[in-house]
Specification:
The chain is of the alpha/beta class. Helix content is about 35%, strand content about 15%. The strands form eight sheets. Strands 4-15-14-13-5-6 form a six-stranded mixed beta sheet, sandwiched between helices. Strands 20-24-21-23-22-25 form a six-stranded mixed β-barrel. Strands 27-28-26-31-30-29 form a six-stranded antiparallel beta sheet.
Length: about 1000
């Protein structure tokens, strides 16, 4: 096997990866061609190495922590290998597909084509998406085909379509490197798109680019920004409407461009003028929660620089105002003639690896393939191309049900059969109790997945084994429109099959044999590209164009290099850094871009909504090292180590107001009536004190579900409110009530355990490098002490220096330790990996001594997932540097003055030695904060020590820009658990 170029399986940056046998990669490493320290991943079975593809235009060899561990993700405890019935009985593919086809045919015959639906995923390949949409919208005749991209990108899609006439991202990643100013809105890119964010940071280093972050919370991204506008939640649209008014008032608009290439500019200004007083700087700043100087600084940066890039993500999209906010941002760039110009414009940061590819083939219920709508002309073109008239097919006549609507229809009995592919809606959709009702009510559920452990997979009447990332071949499209080949490099497990193949086989069994006779993924892509050619010929104003890829041979498809569309001819294969709309001709009927009137008066009421003492406005989103519902990353020990349990991050003042403490366990539920059920829907989490949050705002990661914890995740407490245009759910800033869960005992259990966890009010599974442990809690102390206790259990109590009591229980079998339980009335902080290694060892004096040492040593939180560097390692290194600095200065002079430059030098040396914060960069802010905290503690200690020698150690200002320095005790409490306004899909 030679080197294989493929694409990363995670976010929409679309990084290229190179996979090779270790022997081949060792040769490259020894020759110095690869940067081992930053890009190498350890293969789970010692067969493969994975590094960033240095030739790929998206990442140029860089990878984030998740990408570096893609090989480790291949080990799934319960990989789905064969088709199964709900009973768990394996069946043949023939039997499974026949059942699917016959049930769909019967359902359609009895209830009509709109009684069936498909729910797809941004994890699918473009070829999978294409066949699903062809079957549903072309031959079944239903547009009830939606995707989990509805949950993350549809507000951006709607904004693009309203302004440009087509769902097109005009710019490219190079624009971030060319910009004078980068504005990140509702985007914690340092965590969610770290490779792209590092390109922004390098641009600042090389050309002085200013980075502005607009986010209600302080995040890893805002801590590295030149300006952080910590606006009131939900006021983004108001901010940019004010900016448009500011542009007009200061004669900054490009009137020639507006006259020649746009429409409705004056109409939008007229609408804004109705609230002229509101947009006076002082009044507007008050509404936004900013100072007038902050607001003016931002507005002047925006209009005073020629090249300005604005990028948004889920902080914008996942709101009831998501589409309007998107258009408010685009309006400003249109007014300044930024669209299609290098270093300028609006850019939508995509959450999934192929959300863009799914949109291209019509994966959303609101579109047909190749960016077509449902006009008669577009439907006829599709009917002619797919020959549906000859096959009793019928093109869907109108938009279908979007994600929330689709599951509502299932719950109401309108959808009788559904096929779900590569996604976990029972966890990822809001109001999960309603989603469970939908599954319970739907007579026939088909699920295609790589695991049988996902919550949704357990609802399937027919469960089909899909190819995983390392097995399947096809294409994906990233946020900047680059199409990359995904190439499999290991054989399929068991009888797993490509999703496009399963769909095509069902289509054949439903009577559409000839139109679904694809021999491979290359044939599917070729048909898709040929359809694109036909659409471009009939509707030349559309920008999506794969004409140059429409006659690829199988060999050319296999060898295809990353290529950015539009691709008009074969000479453009392999192109990158291309922009769209650079000539001012847009995809609207008039070929002019549209200024859109957006909401601004409603925004103020949303922003000023008051929460009561027991309530918070809850945001959900991603953690730094996890992905979606953790079915792909939850079992990777290095990615679980930084945040082992579900948490809810709240400001210290809010914690005090709720009469809580850091580390308490809480439940919360929605205040919205339509999301309340009789099932007692609560989401359990551990309280984390985080002054990065605004006082009434809380954050909880979206990843957790009953697969990994006792709770059903954050979405069980969120209502199904959606943006009225895009129908995207509003996961941000929903009001919930918070209440404490009374805990008598809590701790950790290693080794053998009761799988039912009877008596626990809290249990969370955590994967370790050689096994797992469980974090547990009990409301009743007697149940805690009795949990897995036998007459032969060894039990004793250890008192720590902090006066905390640790209750130890060892279960022994044939002289070996088989189970270890540690309980206390507080959190038990121990190093989990070495503690777990005691399991299976002989119980003797040496083991008991080691056990006591580990308990007394405590634990140090993981800071850098790439290198495994903990808080303690950074602290030790920084204190050593401080000692060296003080010693050297004492030797050279009588007066010691420690300054900012000394801290900066120590930090650089520490990062160089340990590697933390210097690989994917997503932990940089945490590294700096940890180093700052311990540096200050060290200075305070030395000031006391040197008083007798009449030396004075001065305190440096060691905080990073826009980051407040916290005390060591506060930092330790937080355990590096920083929150983000970002991202869910």
């Amino acid at each position: 096997m030679s080197n294989i170029q493929s694409s990363c399986a995670y976010c929409g940056v679309g990084c290229g990866v190179t996979i090779s046998p270790k022997s081949l990669n060792s040769g490259l490493i020894n020759s110095g061609l690869l940067n081992v320290g930053t890009q190498k991943s350890t293969a789970f079975n010692a067969k493969f190495e994975l590094i960033g593809d240095q030739a790929h235009p998206a990442n140029k060899g860089q990878l984030c922590a998740k990408g570096e561990r893609l090989i480790e993700s291949l080990v799934q405890l319960n990989t789905l290998r064969y088709p199964k019935l709900k009973s768990g009985k394996p069946v043949s593919w023939d039997a499974a597909l026949t059942t699917v086809a016959e049930t769909f045919k019967q359902t359609i015959a009895e209830h009509g084509p709109d009684s069936v639906a498909f729910y797809l995923s941004g994890q699918l390949l473009t070829e999978d998406y294409y066949v699903a949409n062809k079957l549903a919208k072309g031959f079944i005749g239903t547009a009830n085909v939606d995707t989990n991209s509805r949950l993350c990108m549809s507000s951006a899609v709607s904004g693009h379509m309203r302004a440009f006439g087509e769902d097109v991202v005009p710019g490219c990643y190079e624009d971030f490197e060319l910009a004078d100013v980068i504005v990140l809105v509702g985007a914690n890119s340092a965590w969610t798109h770290p490779v792209l964010f590092q390109r922004m940071i390098k641009a600042r280093e090389q050309r002085g680019t200013k980075i502005v972050v607009i986010d209600p919370a302080k995040t890893a991204t805002s801590s590295q920004a030149d300006l952080h506008l910590q606006i009131a939640p939900g006021t983004d649209s108001l901010l940019f409407n004010g900016l448009l008014q500011f542009i007009a008032d200061n004669d900054a608009a490009d009137t020639d461009y507006i006259a020649a290439y746009t429409q409705n500019f004056e109409a939008v200004l007229t609408e804004l003028s109705q609230d002229k007083q509101q947009f006076e700087v002082d009044n507007l700043a008050t509404s936004l929660g900013l100072s007038s100087s902050e607001l003016l600084h931002f507005y002047q940066l925006f209009i005073g620089n020629e090249k300005v890039m604005t990028a948004s993500c889920q902080g914008v999209n996942q709101s009831v105002l998501g589409t309007d906010t998107t258009n408010a941002m685009i309006n400003c760039h249109l007014a300044l003639a930024h669209i299609g110009k290098p270093g300028s414009g609006f850019f939508s940061l995509t959450g999934q690896p192929n959300a863009m590819g799914g949109r291209e083939v019509g994966g959303l219920a609101t579109q047909l393939a190749c960016h077509m709508g449902f006009t008669d002309a577009e439907r006829q073109l599709l009917a002619d191309f797919w020959h549906t008239d000859d096959k009793s097919g019928v093109i869907a006549k109108d938009k279908g049900l979007t994600a929330v609507e689709l599951f509502d229809a299932m719950a109401e009995g309108k959808i009788k059969a559904v096929w779900i592919m590569g996604t976990n809606p029972l966890v990822s959709l809001p109001n999960t109790a309603k989603i469970q009702q939908a599954f319970d009510a739907c007579p026939f559920v088909v699920v295609s997945d790589i695991t049988q452990d996902a919550a949704t997979a357990k609802q399937a009447d027919i469960l089909l084994p899909a190819l995983g990332w390392s097995e399947k071949c096809g294409t994906v499209t990233n946020s900047e429109r680059v199409i990359t080949r995904q190439r499999g490099f290991i054989p399929a497990k068991g009888e797993a099959k490509a999703d496009w193949w399963a769909l095509a086989e069902v289509a054949k069994l439903m009577g559409f044999e000839n139109e679904f006779d694809f021999k491979n993924s290359a044939a599917v892509f070729k048909e898709f590209a040929q359809l694109s050619k036909a659409v471009k010929s009939r509707f030349p104003e559309k920008q999506f164009d794969l004409t140059g890829m429409s006659n690829l041979t199988d060999e050319q498809y296999d060898a295809l290099k990353p290529t950015q569309w539009p691709v008009a001819d074969t000479s453009q294969l392999g192109q990158s850094n291309q922009r769209v709309y650079q000539y001012g001709l847009f995809s609207t009927p008039s070929q002019k871009a549209q200024f859109i009137t957006t909401a601004h008066s409603t925004v103020v009421s949303v922003a000023t909504e008051v929460v009561s003492q027991h309530q918070v406005k809850l945001n959900s989103g991603r953690s730094r090292d996890q992905w979606h519902t953790m079915t792909r990353t939850g079992h990777i020990a290095s990615l679980r180590a930084s945040i082992p349990e579900p948490f809810i991050a709240m400001h210290p003042l809010k914690i005090q107001q709720l009469d809580l403490q850091h580390g308490d366990l809480v439940s919360f539920e929605t205040e919205v009536d339509d999301a309340k059920t009789d099932s007692g829907r609560v989401a359990a989490a551990r309280v984390v004190s985080d002054d990065n949050q605004a006082p009434d705002i809380a954050f909880m990661p979206m990843h957790w579900s009953s697969q990994f914890s006792i709770g059903d995740g954050v979405n069980q407490a969120l209502s199904s409110a959606v943006d009225p245009v895009s129908k995207q759910p509003a996961f941000k800033c929903q009001t919930v009530s918070v209440s404490k869960v009374n805990v008598a005992l809590q701790g950790v259990i290693f080794g053998d355990h009761d799988p039912e966890f009877n008596g626990t009010c809290w249990n969370v599974q955590q994967s370790l490098s050689q096994g797992e442990c469980f974090h547990i809690a009990f409301s009743d102390a007697e149940q805690g002490f009795g949990f897995q206790s036998t007459l032969y259990s060894l039990k004793w109590t250890i008192s720590l220096l902090s006066k905390q009591l640790i209750h130890v229980q060892c279960n022994i079998h044939k002289g070996l330790l088989v189970s270890l339980k540690l309980l206390s009335d507080q959190q038990v902080e121990v190093a989990l990996e070495p503690m777990h290694l005691l399991i299976g060892k002989e119980v003797d004096t040496a083991l008991m001594q080691q056990l006591h040492q580990l308990i007394k040593a405590g634990n140090s939180p993981l800071i850098c997932a790439c290198t495994g560097v903990t808080e303690a390692k950074i602290q030790d290194a920084m204190l050593q540097k401080l000692d060296n600095t003080v010693f050297n200065k004492r030797s050279a002079a009588d007066n010691i003055s420690i300054n900012q430059a000394d801290f900066n030098a120590a930090l650089i040396e520490t990062q160089a030695e340990l590697g933390c914060g210097k690989q994917c960069g997503s932990c940089h802010s945490e590294v700096v904060q940890c180093a700052s905290d311990i540096w200050l503690v060290g200075l305070e200690d030395m000031a006391i020590e040197t008083k007798d020698s009449e030396h004075e150690t001065k305190m440096p200002a060691v905080a990073t820009q826009n980051t407040e320095v916290k005390t060591q005790s506060e930092n330790t409490k937080k355990s590096s658990t920083k929150s983000t306004q970002e991202e869910v899909a």
